[in-house]
Amino acid sequence: MDDSSPLLAIPVLRSRVAPVFNWCSRVHLFGGDGPGAVQYQAELDLGSLSALGRLETLRRLGVQTLICGALSPDLMVYGEQLGLSIIAGVAGEIEDVVQAFVRRELDQPRFWLPGCQGPRRYRGRCSMAGSAARSTGSSDGRPEPFMGGGDAGSAGSESPSSRRSRGGPGGVCVCPRCGGTMPHRRGIPCTQQHCPACRHSMVRRS
Q1: Are 173 and 142 contained in the same domain?
Q2: 104 and 8, same structural domain?
Q3: pLDDT value of residue 125
């Protein structure tokens, strides 16, 4: 690997962005003198690590940005707590995606992960939920990713009652086991987030 720290990490399935970060094992690292000069550095095999462990390893190596397909809400929260800038909901050939990242053109429809609504903005979201209400299941028993709206901070045309059912803004998520807290994120129920300290499901506190 080059002496410079990697700027960018992309989970890989064959030659494309892996559709779901939670279950990927291969990650390509890219580095350079800056975001405008990104070059391939190395491939990592992280199959022996948990999804949380992969995020921790990437950050420890100096990765600043993670481009991926779908990922679970708890990984999104944890990755951002680690200091990663996460661009989710992205699909396409790795080389094309890297070039689009350099040119800041990942919002083009050809890079949208199928099922994700809206452009992949540089702080866009595409998360997968574990509840049966949001999952149809797949042939191998894994839950299918739930593809949310384009930007978690955008309420779109939802009615107030719909937003309340998903969890409105404000309040904090609290761990009933150890007392840990984190800010509540609009559109992600606290019960779908896990405490960074003990991994227990959290509950909402206004």
Answers
A1: no
A2: yes
A3: 44
Same domain, 99 and 127: yes
Domain co-membership, 166 together with 150? no
On whether both 174 and 147 belong to a single domain, the answer is no
Residue 10 CA neighbour count, 13 Å, CB half: 27
| Residue found under tokens 């009615």 | 159
Q: For each successive 10 residues of the chain (206 residues), what is the average pLDDT?
A: 72 94 92 74 93 93 94 88 93 95 90 69 45 32 36 36 43 79 79 79 75
Q: Are 179 and 136 in a shared domain? A: no
State the pTM of this model: 0.61
Q: At residue 84, what is the residue type?
A: L
